[in-house]
Write a structure and sequence with these properties.
Blueprint (H helix, E strand, L loop, with lengths): L15 E4 L12 H6 L4 E4 L38
Parallel strand pairs: 1-2
């Protein structure tokens, strides 16, 4: 049996590349939000820690950045005996 499916070839050398890393640097020219608005052919690649990255800004805060509120976290091992 012969396979009659067409072969589609595309030239991707001049294709726009946007970063798929969800960082907080919205001013970056390759940010994922700008790629979602682009109407032509484009590709998404992980550009974090490469030469094409314009500065990665993490969205989530590190645990050390949260100010201490003075309360014990849940599951700290403290047992209450009141009854």
């Amino acid at each position: 049996m012969k396979n009659n499916k067409p072969v589609i070839r595309m030239d991707t050398t001049n294709e726009q590349t946007y970063c798929r890393s969800r960082c907080g640097n919205a001013g970056c020219s390759r940010h994922i939000s700008k790629g979602m608005k682009y109407t032509g052919w484009c590709q998404f690649a992980l550009l974090k820690n490469t030469l094409d990255c314009e500065g990665f800004i993490p969205v989530r805060k590190n645990i050390g950045d949260v100010p201490d509120s003075g309360t014990k976290p849940r599951g700290s091992g403290a047992v209450q005996s009141g009854r």
